[in-house]
Amino acid sequence: TQFRPEVIAPWDVRNLLVNRGTLLLLNELILAKPVVTEADRRTVVRHAMKAIIGYGDALLFFLGGYHWSYLEKQRRMRAHPGVHSALRRLYDRAAEFRFRPDYASYAGCDLARANQALLDALAPVHLECEQRRLGLPELCWESYAESVSRAAVPATLRSPRALARRLRTLGHRTPGLRLDTPLGKLGHQLASPGDRLSVLFPGIAYPRQAPGLATRAAESLQVSPEQPVALVRAYMAKWGVHGDSNLATALDAMGLSLSEAA
Questions:
Q1: Of 36, 51, 190, 222, whose CB has the highest number of CB atoms within 10 Å?
Q2: 214 within 8 A of 225, measured Cβ to Cβ
C-alpha cells in the first residue's frame, strides 16, 4: 500500500530522480579512471539502466501514470501519449535489461560518449518533472534555482515541524547559491543540505543545457567549471554526506576516491 501513487510525496519523487541521476555522475568518474576494466564497464551500463528507469518512473508519477509493477510501468510507458518517443525507447530497453541483463550488447560501445548523450537526453525529462511538481510550466534551468527556492518558503512556513528542522540546518556548511531575490535567498537558507544539493545537481549534470546554473554550481563548490571531473568529485563528496549515506561503501566497491574534493 505504501507504493500507491496517492501516498507518495512529490518531493520524494524528485529525490528519487536526483539519486538516480547521481549514478550517471559516478559513471563519469568511473570512465575517467586510468584503466577501465570490464567490471567497470558493466557497472556503467547497470547505472545507466537504473537511471533511465528512475527518470521514467518520475515522469510517469507526474503524468499520473505511476504503478509499482515494472511490467505495468513498461506497458504504460509504451502507451502514454505524454511520453516522448526517445524516452519511451530508452525506458523500454532499460526495462528489458532489468528482466534479462545483456552486457554483450554494449561490448563495443563508447561508454563515455554514451553516458554524456544519456545525460543530455534525460535533462528535459528532469525539467518536465520539476515543471509539473512545482506547477510552473514555463520553468527553465536558468530560473530553476530561484524558482525552487521561492516555492519552498510557503511550504516550510506552513509546517512548524519542517520549519524547526530547517532552522536546525542553518549552521550546516553546505554549498549555497547566489540568488537574486530576498524570497529566493530565504528559501535557499531554509532548505535542507540535501535539498540544496538537489538544486545544484542540474548544473553539474547538464552544463550544456543549464550553463548559468552550471557556473553558479561551480562557484558554490569552489571548483573551476573548466574542470568537469573535479566538479563532479566535489559534488559527490557533498552528496555522500548529505544525500546518500551508502555512497562511501559504493565508492570502495568501485575503486573510486573523492579525496581530491575534500
A1: 51
A2: yes
